[in-house]
Amino acid sequence: RTSEEQLDLSNATADHTINEKIEFIKENAGDRSKKSDIKTNIAALTKLAEWYGLSSTQLEEVLDVVLDSKLDEADNNKLAKSLVPRDKVPEMLAIHVLGHLGQSVLKFTTQAILLRWVVIAYNLLDNHSKLQLLYGVVFHYLEYNLL
């Protein structure tokens, strides 16, 4: 299917296709022999996420792949940029991201993309009570001009 055909899917079919793309990327993230297929799936997932958004479960799965950092930097960044929420975002996803900032596993550009995502998604969080306790962490990283 072309990407234009995929955008004409019903929501249920789109969800199924999104889940297939995420699953393929998760299963093959460390396999260099499937790099081309991974890139194709990331490109398709990005288009679908832009059009339909990702459910909270899908956001969590994509975040797990990004935070594991088994993909090369460019693919990891593209995947991080595909984190377009469809509904409310669980607060724990933002906290999970903040817990990975500053670790050498993630490249600085990926950390910047994820920090930007936390700031942008703030108004979509299902709760703010725990995240408010971490404002110091957020502002610590904002001082580094990562955004």
UniProtKB/TrEMBL annotation:
It comes from the Eukaryota. GO terms for cellular component: inner kinetochore; nucleus. It holds the Pfam family CENP-I. InterPro entries: CENP-I. It comes from Paraglomus occultum. Belongs to the CENP-I/CTF3 family. The lineage of its organism: Eukaryota, Fungi, Fungi incertae sedis, Mucoromycota, Glomeromycotina. One of its GO terms (biological process) is CENP-A containing chromatin assembly. Keywords: Centromere, Chromosome, Nucleus. PANTHER family: CENTROMERE PROTEIN I. Its main location: nucleus. It is found in: Chromosome, Centromere; Nucleus. The keyword Cell inner membrane does not apply. This is 1270_t:CDS:1.
